[in-house]
Amino acid sequence: MKITRIEQSRHRLELDPPFHPSWDTRVRRHFDVHLVRIETDEGLVGVGSGDAMAGFAGHEELFIGRDPRDMERHFRVIENLSFHYGRCWPLDIALWDLFGQITEQPLWRLLGGRADGVHAYASSGSLRDPEELADLAQLVAEEGFTALKIRFQRKRWRDDIDVLAAVRDAVGDSLALMVDCNQGWRMPWDTAQPWSLKQAQAVAKELEGLDVYWMEEPLHRGDYEGMRRLRESTSVRIAGGEMTRELHELRELVDRRCLDVLQPDAVVTGGITGLRRIAEQALACGLEFTPHTWGNGIGLLANAHLAAGCAGSRYLEFPFDPPAWTPERRDFPLVEPLIAGEDGWLQLSEEPGLGLELDEDYLESTRIA
């Protein structure tokens, strides 16, 4: 079997109402999805999605004519490309989808079979007034989720605490609450300074009183010593690693005991091939492994297979912030959006590979240059 073609395409969904992400000062009026398909001479097609893989065009010959099952070889090439150019890890996702189809096995089983699904936590994305966020929390509980992540990014962190307290009052102990401080990285046009260690420690003290499960990205992504000291000074779990660029940086976070919860994303760093090793290292050191999944349903599926199969993760991020961010919008490339069950469990199928079905007609209608 040989790889015969690699095709990239871009698809755009107009957003009305628009989406106001907490981590971006600019309003999102459309949502773009970048797809990559790897075709073989036996008619199988693997699908991946994530970043636009800037700089990959022109390097297709590094894969065409090769056996798609040479996973380790392909991983090394993708790692090299991702160092020199953009993040090319959607290729690894597509190769795993192909590998599952070739072996006629779902990825969660190929990756170890620890579990055939994972508990999803509802991940909000926007900043809301206390009453609005309390209403969202009530909806989340009614939908069957057992946990909710709330975003911080208001001008004063004490205002964030007030909103969180209103949610805790509204839901009591019926939901586990996580907090994303959004201090680890910024959009290119956002010049705000991240919190200092003392600021993060002050926030952590407030979160302890509100029984928060984890505190995500509380410091700059490179402040290893600050994260370690913060972790030692609070009972709240410290989480991070979602946009870390290199696998060796993730290993550093684990080795230096910077975090309690490691959150890399397979479509952003390392693919499934690299992150399965990171997951094993994290678990061996007593850390939780809980992938970041803020993207479309293809990336969500890839991370779900990874989390369930090789890590048996306690939680998985499930973007959910209606009406601006719904499963239907998030997963518009798929025939059916991914939906968690009544108990918040995201069940994976026995279908080979990722087990997805693309909505080809809709993808064609949303294709852009």
Automatic annotation (TrEMBL):
Gene3D superfamilies: Enolase-like C-terminal domain, Enolase-like, N-terminal domain
UniProt xrefs under SUPFAM superfamilies: Enolase C-terminal domain-like (SSF51604), Enolase N-terminal domain-like (SSF54826)
Cofactor: Mg(2+)
Protein name, UniProt field: Mandelate racemase/muconate lactonizing enzyme family protein
Organism: Aquibaculum arenosum
Record's keyword terms, sorted: Magnesium, Metal-binding
PANTHER family linked to this entry: ENOLASE SUPERFAMILY, MANDELATE RACEMASE (PTHR13794), MITOCHONDRIAL ENOLASE SUPERFAMILY MEMBER 1 (PTHR13794:SF58)
InterPro entries: Enolase-like_C_sf, Enolase-like_N, Enolase_C-like, Mandelate_racemase_C, Mandelate_racemase_N_dom, RHMD-like
